[in-house]
Structures are given as C-alpha cells and as structure tokens.
Amino acid sequence: MRLNSHPCLGWICLGCLVIASSVIARAEDPEPVDLVVYGGTSGGIAAAVQAQRMGKSVIVIEPGQRVGGLTTGGLGQTDIGNKAAIGGIAREFYEDIAARYQEPSAWKWQQRDEYRSGGQSKTAAGESAMWTFEPSVALSVYQSWIDRDRIRIDYGRRLDRSSVITTRSLPARIIAIRMETGETYRAKMFIDATYEGDLMAAAGVSYTVGRESNDQYGETLNGVQTAMARHHQLRPGIDPYVVPGNPDSGLLPHIDPQGPGTEGDADHRVQAYCFRMCLTDHPDNRIPFHKPEGYQPLWYELLLRNFEAGEDGVPWINSRMPNRKTDTNNRLGFSTDFIGQNYDYPEATYQQREKIIAQHRLYQQGLMWTLANHPRVPEHVRREVSRWGMCKDEFQEGNGWQDQLYIREARRMVGHYVMTQNNCQGRPVEDPVGLAAYTMDSHNQQRYVDSQGHVRNEGDVQVGGFPPYGISYRSLVPKPDEVSNLLVPVCLSASHIAFGSIRMEPVFMVLGQSAATAACQAIDDGVAIQNVDYSRLAKRLVQDNQVLAHVGAKPKPGIDAEALSGTVVDNRQAETKGNWVTSSSSSGRVGDDYLHDNASDSKDCVAIYHADLGQAGRYQVNLLWPVHPNRASNVSVTVLDVDGKRHTQRINQRDAKSGGKASLGVFEFAARGTVEIRNADADGYVIADAVQWVPVETDGVQ
C-alpha cells in the first residue's frame, strides 16, 4: 500500500515519519535502522558487512532458513572467468575459504594433498584465495562473519508483497516493509538482494521477465537463438512424440508446442533452473540415489532416446570439491536443467514457487535414479553415476538435497541504466562500481519440434572473448522518478544476455558491497540514491579494495579468417558435442575465441567442422589453434575424404615450433569437407579453433 499524497520530496520529512509511525508502528516491531537488506544471499551478506563497517545499523531479512544463497547452496565451483576482477569483501570471502582449508580439521574424507580442483576454478600458484569449496564450509565462513560483526539476521520472514509502504509523492520513498508473519521493518535505505526481485517489484519499480528482442538494445545474442544452440544439444533425429511417428499420441513432456519463435525476437521464456548437487563417492558419506515418490517415467523418455540416438557421455559436469565431494551441474542435451518448467517462477506466489521447486527436485531426483538404474541407459553411464550419491554431512535436513534452487534469472530491473551486450563487448560505462568477467552465458530455455519433425533445445548461448568490464552504478538503482531509497544489486538492470555474464556469485558480492556503500553515503548526505556523488563513491570503493577498472592485458585480436587463403571454418561454425568451454585468453587464435575441453576427465568432447568448398577437388587441410604449454600433445584429428574414409592422426598442440598450424595432408573431397577434433585419451587441454581447406592449385598456405 502507499500513503496518501504528501508534498515532501527527497529525504523523508518529519510529517511523513509521523504518518508512517501512526500507520505501522507496533511494540513488537524491530526498531528503525539505517539499512534493511531483504535477502540473505551472498550479495546481501556482503552488503550487511559493509554497512556495519561504515557505522550503520542494519538488519538482514532472510525468507528461508539459510544465508548465502547459491554460494552455500551447492555452487562450490566459482564462476567468474578472470579472478583479478574480484576485490573487496568478495575476495575476503575466498581468502577465508582458503584459510579454512589450511586447517587439518577441515579434511575429513581425504587428505589436503589428495585434492586437485578442476575446471576454471583452479587457484593460481601463490594466490591467497581458494575458489572451490563445500557448501557447509561456505556457510561456516558467513556465520563467522555474522558473529564477528554482530549482524542481525531475521530468518523465515517472507515479504508481504502487498504491504510495501511508500510515500505517494514521486520519486517514492520506501518507509517500511511488512512480512507475512506480521513484523514491519522501517529503515532509511533498503537493498533487495533476492534472486527474484520481490521487494523491487512490490515497491513499484520497473522490471522485465524473459528475453528482449535484439532490436530493443541493438544486440545480436538476445531473443530466440536457434542458430546458437550448438552446446548442450540433443542428438539429431529424435522423434518428439509419445508414440514415435504418431503425432496423435501427443508430444513428450516438456516440449513447447509454441516454439521456437522468430529468431532474435523477444519472448517470455526464462533460462532453465536446476539444483547444483553436492555429491560424493566416499562410501561412508554417500547416500545412494533413490527412486522418488511420484516418479514420472515419461519425463525421461527423451533422455533415453537421446542415448539411443548416439549420446554416450555422462550428462553432468561433476566438478571436484574438497573432501571427495562435487559441485554437479548441467551438461549435454538432457541433464539437470528442467528446461521450460520455470517460466511462471519469477512472478509466482510463494506457494506456487514451492510447487515449482518441488517439481524441480522430483525431476532431478528421478533423473539421478534413472541414470543410475534404467536398463536403456548405457552400462558405462549407469556404472559411473552409481558410484556417486548425496552427502550425509551436507543439507542434512533434506537428506543431502538443498532448498536453494539455482535461480539463474528471474525479474530484472529496468533502471536508470540498462547493461547490454554492448557493455560486455567493449562499450564502457562512466560510473563503474564493480567488474564482471564471465562469458555471456544463457542456458537453454525451451524444447521444440523443428521443421524436420525432430526435438531440439533452444536458448543456449556461450560467447566470450572480452576482458573484464565495468558495471554501471546506475544499473543498481531505479529510474529517478520511481523509488529513491532502494538499491538492487542482484536483479539489477541488464538485458537478458548481459545478465548472463553478470549473474555470478562473486559479482553479486561485489555489487552488494557497492550498493551498501552508496546507501550509507546517501544517508550521510541526505540525498536520493540516484543523486549519490559518484566520485566520492568510487573513492571509497577503491579504499575498500574494490576493483573498478581492468588493468591487465586485453586479449589480442584474433586472426581474421577472411584474410586466410582457401576456406576457413571457425569454432563458432563447428558442431560440438560434450562440454567445450569458450576462451580468448591465448593469442594466435582465429576469430574472437576458441574452444577448449578444460582438460576434462570426461573424454567425450567432439568438434565437427563442415566446409562448403564449392567444388570437388584436392585440398590441403590445415589445423589452426593458439599454442600454449598446457595443450595436449596427442590431439585426435580425423579427416573424412570423398569416399567417407576416415584418416586419423595425433597432433601436438603444445609444440611452440608448430606456430599453431599443422598440415593434416592433401585429400580428395566432394563439394563438402569434414574434420573432427576429439579429446579422447588426450594428455592436456584440447583446443578446437579453426580448420583450413586450401585447393592444391594455390601457392602456399597463409
């Protein structure tokens, strides 16, 4: 509700305070404070710590029973890209994680020297931070902060979304917020640190849900993206109907009959959610996967058909965490992402959200049991999945299953400034309050039936190749004529595809700290948060070890494929299978980026390059890639000639003398050529960058 119109502007006048007190004050309500943080996520805790350090009173309201959001909810493999972008309280967290694992008592299920982290979260030599961790250890760090700083956390209180009390005059000020349990919280400043943006929406701030069209902000990676859907894709040719070949039998569950939509157009769809499972293979700590009550066999028919169509990989990313645990995430065409089943979540009631979360849990529990037990799952997949299970010592109330669903994206504010793809790829902002450094990353958003009558995934986008970039302060605040004392560091103002780069837990911590700093400054200066003096804000952020500018070397431009002779196919045109990762950190690449396999233990990454040669003939085939000492010396590369004969050889991608180019030989082709790169049995990082076909009649190879 809103108060009747009152002529005050900017800071709350005495008259408004009197009115507010008469409306909402109760003896059992908390005393007014400087700052209320709604949402005890990682960003919310960082905000509270900063407010305390700046001498302000603060209360954190956590709707659930656990602080830390995804950081304590299973996402132990930190996604950031360039760790130099992370400073301030966020870096303190990862340094405290490292300190915990220096203690012998932290190692129960393995010895410290037995642990080797994997993927992008490897800690650099000599670095004081650690970027992989167990959920329980992350929670213990946050709890130690809460105890150290005497931060008040009110658990189990959900916002009454109809009772955000504001002034009627614009810009409005939030005077108080009421919980479903009846408590009313009053403050000078408010921060919405939830993944859903409930306070922001209830306060009347502009927001959006779903994907914008490319035209709206001059982007290329927003909206419907069937052409980009190469990663995490189903095998070709899978029948979508309950009874194969019979449309009258209906579509299999969770295939969208309205899809896919027009390429690049806006839609209501939201990228998929999942649980970031913490698994273990230690027999004394493992809870075997079980067949859940309410198991729906038909939900997994598409999974089984995908295996029968040729998929042979284990459909998860099982990243190693300490103590023989994992952070397990989505991988391949049918995995932990419950695609298309979250569209209603951002705007849903609490009761509806609970049902959606329960359905996601049922789906994922059923998926794990299916992978471990179903006879139509390949035997080697069943054997591998069966080694693992939930952890007895994590999320004990849920028998190893957490309450925190991975809300990759929900509401997004449409604020004073909207971050877009253009900012990610080089358009600077004039008021940075932190850096983002991750690939523009969207998970799949729908399953649909293509023009050939087969089921496909749509929505997966993974585009990197840019250095860390600044996030505008204005993207944390509402439009100037909306609300003047609310900051939104999580559901910030960004387009769908830009949010896909920003939406990382350490970045939310950075933005939470910056938001709290701005709130404290606004209180001290008696101004609206839109009128905070940025130069003073930036000075304080730097003083507090925040990183506002990328000072490292920028990636060198890649080789222009059009400048090379013959026909060159870059990795962006390749068909991929398995969990390739996009990177641009090495020079000597062709185009903006290249793919690597993370030196993965799962040796099922394949990149298939098809070249339209125009005419049949003999062609010199060359493999191109950026050289580095961590590359594999035995990369499997296969050329398919005009007769379909396969010519396989091993290429040394770490050999600096090669200059990042290897001749695969001269072969006869029809008007189309094919080369495959595989990471099977490789002894280092496998790179898939570019393949070049040059007619033998040309002189030399550029």
Automatic annotation (TrEMBL):
InterPro entries: CBD-like_Golvesin-Xly, FAD/NAD-bd_sf, HdrA-like
Signal peptide boundaries: 1-27
Iron is among the record's keywords: yes
MF terms (GO), sorted A to Z: 4 iron, 4 sulfur cluster binding; metal ion binding; oxidoreductase activity; xanthan lyase activity
Organism (species): Crateriforma conspicua
The keyword Repeat is assigned to this record: no
UniProt domain Golvesin/Xly CBD-like: residue ranges: 568-692
Name of the protein this chain belongs to: Xanthan lyase
EC number: 4.2.2.12
Keywords: 4Fe-4S, Iron, Iron-sulfur, Lyase, Metal-binding, Oxidoreductase, Signal
Source species, domain of life: Bacteria
Enzyme class of the recorded protein, top EC level: lyase
